[in-house]
Amino acid sequence: MIRLFINGLAASAGGGLTYLRNVIPELARRASVVATVLLNPALRRDCGDFPNIFFLDAADSSSARRRFYREQAALPKMIRDSGAHVLISAGNFALWNSPVPQILLSRNSLYTSADFARDLRARGDYALWADTLIKGWLAKGSIRRAALTVAPSEAFAHELSEWAGKEVVAIHHGFNAEVFAGDSRAISAEAPAQLAEGQDALRLLFVSHYNYYRNFETLFRAIPILKARMKGTKVKLYLTCHLDSDHNPGSYRAEAASALVGDLRAEHDIVELGTVPYRSLHHLYRACHMYVTPAYAESFAHPLVEAMSSGLPVVASDIPVHREICREAAVYFPRFSPDALANCVLQIHAHQTLAARLSHAGCLRSTDFSWEKHVTALLDLAESVLRGRSSR
C-alpha cells in the first residue's frame, strides 16, 4: 500500500484540469493506492467520490507567487497528518521542505521559452515578462529541490534538464477515447447553428484559450492567404475562445488580436465559439476538416491527441513537442510563417490521399497515449523514490 499526497491547487484551467480529471479516477482504480488530494472546491465537484481518495478543499484566488509562499507554510503539516509516503506536486512548483520524498510534475514550457520572452518584450508586456522570470526562478529551484521531476514529453524533459542542470524523467500524459467521445449530448445551444453555417466551407479548428504562446496571430494572418489561394472556396476557422481579455484566463491582452481579425470576423471567416465543455469537444472536432496549431511553446498539447483520435489531419508548427506527439500524423510549418501554414492546409485539402493517410496515422498514434500507462509509470517512480530513500 502506498499513500500519496497530491497538491493540485495550481490546476485552474487547460492542461492542469485535464490532468487531474483523468488521473484521479485512474488512481481510484488501484487497490494498492490511498491518495489525499488538495485542490480548489470548483474542481472538487467534477471529481466524484472514491473510497480510497480523500479530498481537501482549499480555495485560493491569490497569485501564483503568493500561493507558493502560503503552501510552503501550510502544506508540511497537512502532508504529515495525511500519513502520505510521497508528495506529488502537480503545478510546476515544489514544496521547499517536504516531510516526505517529492515528485514534481513540471508542464509549463513558458519558463524555458526564449520565444515567449521575446514575444513579451515585443508586446511591451514587461509586467508579465518580469512575472515569468520570477516564476521561472522558482520553477528551476523546484526542480532542484524535488527528489524527481516528471515532464509530459521527451522533448520538454530534455529542455528542462538542460535548463535546470538536473535529470528530468518523461512520462507522456494519457488519453481515454471512450471517455472523450462518450457523451452524446448536444454541444451547446449556439454552436450547432454556427457550425451549420460553414457546411459549404473548409472548416479549420483551433482549441485553446487566447494567450500569446499559442501564436494566434500567425494563424489569423494565414487565413486571408489561404482564401486568396483557394479561389472562391470558403474557409472558416473555429476558435474555442473569445478574443476578449475578460473572457480568458491569465493576464493576456486580446485587443491586438481582435483588431487583427476585424474584417475576418465580420465576414464570418473566424468564428469565436467561446469555451466548449470537455464532454462536448468531440462533436466539435468531428464537425471540422482539419486541426491547426501555430503554438511556439508546448509541453504536451492535449488537443493534438484529441484531434488525432477524432480522425482530423493535423497542421502543426514545427517544434519538437509537436513532432514527438504527432509523428507522421501531421504536416509541419515554421512556427512564425503564415504563408507556410496556408500552404500546408492547401496541400492537405488538395490531396485526399494525404488527408486520409494523416487521418489513419493519427487514429493509430492516439492509441499510444493512456492514462492507465501514465499512472502505472508514475506509481513505479513513487515506489523507486521510496526504495531509494530506504536504502539511504
List the main descriptive attributes of the protein structure presented here.
single chain; 392 residues; alpha/beta; Rossmann fold; 6-stranded parallel β-sheet; 17 helices; 15% strand
List unreliable stretches of 5+ residues: none
Please give the alpha-carbon distance between the first and last residues: 21 Å
User: How much strand?
Assistant: 15-25%
Helix/strand order, N-terminal first: EHEHEHEEHHEHEHHEHEHHEHEHEHEHHH
Largest sheet: 7 strands, parallel
Identify the overall geometry. Answer: globular
CATH architecture descriptor name of the largest domain = 3-Layer(aba) Sandwich
Annotation field: number of helices: 17
Query: Would you give the CATH topology of the largest domain?
Result: Rossmann fold
Mean of all residue-level pLDDT scores? 90
Number of strands: 13
Structural class: alpha/beta
Radius of gyration: 21 Å
> What proportion of the residues is helical, as a percent range?
40-55%
Number of domains: 2
CATH class of the largest domain: Alpha Beta
Looking at CATH, the homologous superfamily of the largest domain is: Glycogen Phosphorylase B
Give the neighbour order of strands across the main sheet. Answer: 3-2-1-4-5-6-7
